[in-house]
Design a protein that fits this description.
Bound molecules: flavin-adenine dinucleotide
Order of helices and strands: EHEHEEEHHHHHHEEEEEEEEEHHH
Helix content: 25-40%
Strand content: 15-25%
Number of domains: 3
Radius of gyration: 19 Å
Strand order of the largest sheet: 4-5-10-6-7
CATH superfamily of the largest domain: CO dehydrogenase flavoprotein, C-terminal domain
CATH class of the largest domain: Alpha Beta
Length: 291
């Protein structure tokens, strides 16, 4: 590992100054990705900027309108240990409570998981399904981006030079809605998704028709995917097995996976369908439990 300086700024202004000082910078939140990449020589920098000491990046709260605002460097365990987060946003907890093991979850942040831009990251498809947005900040101001527009390739995201992720924002769930995230891994824990699916469903007042839906996939393309065709297949329909199967087929059709040591193209396409259907069933169940 090459030598680098370690900086621990105490304010966002100090972070922006450090990023803009002309040296090659990398941010450090939990370090569970970046330290591994530095050690293996896959990344290098002149300075590592630790953002874990910045108060607004390490807290989370519900706003009066029910939006969950999560500081980018908030550890995963802090989120899923919050009973209000568990009650109001269970699909987020589905995703963040399966990332690595407890030691990883106690350090790793949600912002790091999204910024690392792995096609197989667990929180990203769940956030896409939940309609989350990202607040990005730089010295010259802030902007907001839907999560599905953030990852632009394996290991590549939409951050501009000088910009950092400040917050993940998850809107309050609609009335009569449910969401669910899960993945397929060949082992029970400490593995990376072969394929994953996150969905959310909002039903009408009688739970007879689907008013809106969002379906997202992980690990079946170069980036996590939002699948508009699956949402279109569901919208306005009764939540039946046949309709869920159609949405699953739309998800499989949009998947463009690769074959690697974890799985083949055929297996991943099949999983895209099966995981979507099962996630829809579980989201429907949650929408009924929430009534
Ligand atoms: C044993 C092990 C098991 C794992 N299992 C899983 C798993 O099951 N599922 C999964 O999805 N991941 C898994 N991971 C990957 C990793 O733990 C997650 O991606 C984690 O959430 C990253 O968060 P972090 O805070 O540690 O990020 P860091 O390593 O600190 O940062 C990751 C990247 O994001 C950048 N970054 C961090 N914060 C910001 C910010 N606010 N603004 C801009 N850029 C930023 C960093 O510069 C770096 O490039 C595993 C890792 C290990 C070591």
């Amino acid at each position: 590992m090459e030598a680098f300086d370690y900086l621990a700024p105490r304010s966002l202004a100090e972070v922006y100054d450090a990023i803009g000082n002309g040296r090659r910078s990398l941010l450090l939140a939990g370090g569970t990705d970046v330290i591994v990449q530095l050690r293996e020589g896959r990344r290098s920098c002149d300075q590592l900027i630790d953002i874990k000491h910045i108060e607004e990046l390490t807290r989370h709260a519900f706003t009066p309108d029910g939006t969950l605002e999560i500081g980018a460097a908030t550890p995963l365990a802090e989120l899923y240990e919050d009973t209000e987060v568990r009650r109001r946003v269970p699909a987020l907890v589905d995703a963040i409570s399966i990332i690595g093991g407890i030691a990883i979850q106690s350090r790793a942040s949600i912002g790091g998981n999204v910024c690392n831009a792995s096609p197989a990251a667990d929180s990203t498809p769940a956030l896409i399904a939940l309609g989350a947005t990202l607040l990005l900040g730089s010295k010259s101001g802030n902007r907001e981006l839907p999560v599905e527009e953030f990852v632009i390739g394996p290991g590549r995201n939409a951050l501009q030079p000088g910009e950092i992720l400040l917050q993940v924002r998850i809107p309050a769930p609609a009335a009569n809605s449910g969401a669910f995230y899960h993945r397929f891994i060949p082992r029970n824990e400490m593995d990376i998704a072969v394929a994953s699916a996150g969905v959310s469903l909002a039903l009408d007042a009688n739970s007879e028709r689907i008013e809106s839906a969002r379906v997202a996939l992980g690990a079946v393309a170069a980036t996590p995917l939002l699948v508009p065709a699956a949402a279109e297949a569901l919208q306005g329909q009764a939540p039946t097995t046949e309709i869920f199967a159609k949405a699953g087929e739309a998800a499989a059709a949009m998947a463009s996976p690769i074959t690697d040591m974890r799985g083949s193209v055929a297996q991943r396409k099949h999983l895209a369908k099966v995981l979507t259907v099962r996630a829809l069933e579980r989201a429907l169940q949650r929408s009924r439990e929430a009534r």
